[in-house]
Amino acid sequence: MRLPTHEQILLAIYYDPETGLFKKPKGELTGGCSARGGYLSIYICGARFRAHRLAWFYMTGEWPKQEIDHINGDRKDNRFSNLRTCTHQQNNHNQPIRKTNTSGIKGVYWNKRQRKWRGQVCLNYHIHHTKGFDKIDEAEVAVRALREELHGEFANHGSHTTAR
């Protein structure tokens, strides 16, 4: 498939970077439809595009070469200020708390053998662990610090719960 040019997109649709919403030329909103994984997609110029990638192209004039991350983790929030380019690994760092988490705190688990709360953070397919703690609050502080150290600006402490 041949990608449309920036000019073709600008003629076919209007994007409001403050709201993240798209409008057709006659002014009616086109919220898009939910695509696999909870992303919004928009059918335009004979093809379907994910709304966040389309927003990036609309604003920059270049199709993203890498992935586009939703900073707040909400895949339907396509405000330009909520979008940033990233590698696949950085995008994975910004994941929410997993559905299988039983502690309620991202990266914190109960170690039965030690009878302690521990934290874990993954970077480059290597799992980094905190020491064991008697109190879950202490493990939470430690895992947050480790995540900040390893993931930097892409550290997500599980405040959003959108399944990825």
From TrEMBL:
Gene3D superfamilies: 1.20.5.2050, 3.90.75.20. It holds the Pfam family HNH_3. Residues 50-92 form the HNH nuclease domain. This is HNH nuclease domain-containing protein.
